[in-house]
Amino acid sequence: MKATIIGGAETGAAAELSRDITESILASADNTADMWLLPAGINSFCTDCGDCYEGRETSCRHAREVMPILKSMLSSDIIVIVTPELMGHTTAPVLNFLDYLAYLRIGSRPRAEMLTKRVVVISLGDKRAAEDIADCVSSWGVCDVRVLTRSSAPAAARLALSAPARMGFFARLRMRRIAKKAGLAVPRICGGKGNAQK
After folding, report:
1. How many helices (H) and strands (E) does the chain have?
2. Which of 33, 135, 139, 177 has the largest count of CB atoms under 10 Å?
3. Model-wide pTM > 0.85
4. Domain that holds residue 189
């Protein structure tokens, strides 16, 4: 199993918790993990030039910093995002990173890989900070999004290491609707007749 851990700060509690989660995931010999601490070299804000919506995301001025993180996310089974909290919401480096991935939304240029991901979002303060990110991730078509606070952060490593439960009827139905709306093949775990592997 592969995990991608994204820490919302290079120092402090978010960085420490990201390292702890990475170590607990790597404790199992079968697991691999990539860890990224934001801003990760992304030192200016998205200007909404629109290149990514046109399929030219590699021409973005921060493509060299954003694309390796996105590639890691797409190849992972689970994505863990740890965010600090400021004024009840997530911080600017996290929002800025998510702005660079706005084109992944259903209705724009969604990726089929996102439909089957498990995303765990941990807020170090108010739960609303994690819910901001969860809303964004859900718009990418991710069906399994968990929101945790710092007190329940140890559950993140357990969630990462546990096998996903079989999706219930309504979750499979939601995934089929999302895939159809986005024009994507229905993933194998949905039991549909898409182009996914059997």
Report:
1. 6, 5
2. 33
3. no
4. 165-198
